[in-house]
């Protein structure tokens, strides 16, 4: 599920934005100022940002200028939301780094369509075959193999393995994994993730104390170890 951050100081507008974006199946974090969003660390996990131009304290356009100088966030898709309709102001917003521009008042359908378009443009095409050392994952066939041996996985085990393999090297918390793999409407707890990781380790022949694939990062979560060619030759299962 894509995560959209909204920064809008008018509470009524903020609630409307949240309602329609969540209704469209997106996960939304909404804030009244850029400071509040940064203090919450929301932008680090965002897939898109809906940003109001006129904000208390730091303006939206000022924040956007700063955002585009941040190596970690400069590619974050941004929809600028404003009551400014003059062409010169639209041009300023786009030249500052906004990916799209929506003028108030706006329709819910147009808002959702523009945010979805930003998300589509920002997401690279997912390859159908993933590889990580001796591990291969065929997304089209829903099949995983380790050194040529097919793994007998449940659907959730496969989904979790595919997600972690596609994002090898990145740490995900249990909450993030529940959201990305099981979905926001899943009612189970974080223990579900631990159980599935344990099951996957058994399938992979992974030693929890010295894992070749699924690593536990203390206090943070799990990650799929990213193999390089040398590691694959040295540690491939015999």
TrEMBL record:
InterPro entries given in the database record: CheY-like_superfamily, OmpR/PhoB-type_DNA-bd, Sig_transdc_resp-reg_C-effctor, Sig_transdc_resp-reg_receiver, WalR-like, WH-like_DNA-bd_sf
SMART domains referenced in this protein's UniProt entry, alphabetically: REC (SM00448), Trans_reg_C (SM00862)
Entry-annotated residues carrying 4-aspartylphosphate: 52
Alphabetically ordered keywords of this record: Activator, DNA-binding, Phosphoprotein, Transcription, Transcription regulation, Two-component regulatory system
GO biological process: regulation of DNA-templated transcription
GO cellular component: cytosol; protein-DNA complex
Domain OmpR/PhoB-type residue range list: 127-226
DNA-binding region: 127-226
Coiled-coil ranges (or none): none
Entries under CDD domains matching the protein: trans_reg_C (cd00383)
Gene3D superfamilies assigned to the protein according to its UniProt record, in alphabetical order: 3.40.50.2300, 6.10.250.690, Winged helix-like DNA-binding domain superfamily/Winged helix DNA-binding domain
This protein's name: Phosphate regulon transcriptional regulatory protein PhoB
Source species taxonomy: Bacteria, Thermotogati, Deinococcota, Deinococci, Deinococcales
